[in-house]
User: Fold this.
Amino acid sequence: MSLAVDNPIVNNPFEEPTQYWDYSEGQPILRDGRRPAGYYLRPRTRAATGALLEEEFVSLDGANEIRRRVGAWREQGYPGTTRVTRELLAYWSWPERERRLFFCQREAAETIIWLVEAPATERMGLDIPVDLPSDEDRARGHAGLRRYGCKMATGAGKTVVMGMLIAWSVLNRVHYPQDRRFSDAILVVTPNLTVKQRDEVLKPSHAQSIYEALDLAPHSLMEALGKGRYFVTNWHKFLPEDEPEPGELAARYHSVIRRGKESDRAFAGRVLKDLAGKENILV
Assistant:
């Protein structure tokens, strides 16, 4: 049985999807609407006959509900946001842009902004837990971290979304310096040196700044972007200096949480460099 279709692309990349191919019933069926967020779970065992069991679709109900609420919030004109945020959202979605942004990029940024700026009533009934530290770190006074994630396909433009969110955070902090929802201290942690070199474009001072190249902020706001502090580093820099064993990289990485004998202040000063001493860092 062939599951291939002659025309797999059925949506405009600049607009919200309106159709999708459904493969749940064997042959693909073109359905109206948006493909639900979720994943397929492959059974660990075969049936008694030896035949493969069908994969089970597991819906990500929280993601689907957030997607629905963000869509309604968009239709209402983004209530609860600052003037700077509304200006950026309008700029990113302006249909006459020379370099239009994909819908998935705009929606990813909108979702993070919704989680931060939308009225609290918008998030009623949603469970978005804080990432708590270990008991040891909590005893040392460390609080939980609020982590937000956007799952994006390869080639969807994750670096573009990072630039959009950096611009949103820095520009809001510059214009509203007392609002701790925003940060003007940006830490970009990369998985290897190749990506580190590529992500240097997230600094507004870079010759190929992504904000200029992809027009991520109005010209009137570009100067304010330079008032933020930016640091791009590789995750290996977070390894404790006092670890004696050179091998077992994974074990060394997990020891970063404990940081060995290195004090928190010394660790932050060594790793964060120009961001050391800053609070409320956007990572």
Remarks:
- Residues 77-275 form one domain.
- The CA atoms of residues 171 and 224 lie 6 Å apart.
- Residues 158-175 form the longest helix (18 residues).
- DSSP finds ten helices and six strands in the chain.
